[in-house]
Amino acid sequence: MNRRNFIAGAAAAPLASSLSMRAEDAKPSLLELRKFLLRNTTDNQRGRLTDFVGRTYVPALIRAGAGPIGLFSPLVAPDAPFLLLLAAYPSFDAFDQAQTKLAQDEAFLKETEKAIAGPLLYQREEVTLLKAFPGFPGIEVPPVESGRAPRVFELRTYESSSMLSLKKKIGMFEGGGEIDLFRKCGLVPVFFGAQIAGVKMPSLTYMVAFDNLTARDANWHTFGTSPEWKKISSTPGLSDGETVSNITNMLLSPLPGSQIR
Q: pTM to 2 decimals?
C-alpha cells in the first residue's frame, strides 16, 4: 500500500449536511460501507489503524463536510479483524467531490504520510455503496445520553434471488410496516439501503442498535413472536423463502471517533 493508493481510497469519503436526514426534508442519501481488512500482527496493525482513522481520517471527513460517520469493530462477524466505516452522502456527486476535498487537505495528507511510513496499516479495503430507502432517506443517529454505555449494533444484509423479489422485500420495510414494528419492538433503526455497487447483489443492508447483547436477544424475540410480524411474513408472496435467499449479519461495537454510538 502506498500514499497514492491510500489517499485515493480514503478520499472517497462521505459528505452530508446534517447528522440525521429524515423523510420529510431529504432525498435518499448515498451510503458507503468501507471495510478495512486487518490481521492480528505483532506490530499491532489493528490498534494503529483504529488510532489513525479515529484521530485523523474521521476529522478529515468532517472537515470535508461528511456526516454522520460511524466507526465500528466486530464483536461477532466473519472476516474479523476489520474496521468498518459507515458514511452518508447527499448524492453521488457529493461522493465524487469529497475525493477532491480530501486529496487537497494538507493536514490529512501530512498525517497519512506518517501513518504509512511504518508497517503496513491494513491489508485491503472493500467498499459497498447503497441507496437509502425513500422512506428512510439517511442515517438516524441514536441519541446519546450522558453516562450511557456504547450500544451494540447489528448490520444485516438480505440477498434476494432477483430484483423483483428484492423490491418486494424493500416494500415490506417501506410500506408494509416492518420498520415501524422494529421501533415498537425496541430495534433502533440506523439506516436502510439497497445495494447499488459491491458484492452480493441484488441485496439490501440495514443497521439496528440495541442497549446490549441481552437486549438484542429479547428485542428480536419480541419482534419474531409479535402478531404483526406473523401477519406480515405470512402474506402470500412475502415469506422469507420468496423474498430473501440468504442473510448475513454482524454484531459491531462503536470505536472512538464514531458519531454513532
A: 0.88
pLDDT of 17 strictly over 60: no
What pLDDT band is residue 176 in, cutting at 50, 70 and 90? confident
Each residue's pLDDT tens digit, 104-119? 999 999 999 999 999 9
Alpha helices of the chain — where are they, by DSSP H? 3-10, 45-52, 58-63, 92-103, 106-116, 163-174, 178-184, 213-224, 227-233, 240-243
- What is the CATH code for 152-254? 3.30.70.100
| Residue positions counted in the chain | 261
Separation CA 127–CA 140 (nearest Å)? 21
* CATH architecture observed for domain 3-132: 2-Layer Sandwich (3.30)
Q: What's the DSSP call for residue 150?
A: P
| Residue at grid coordinates 442473510 | 247
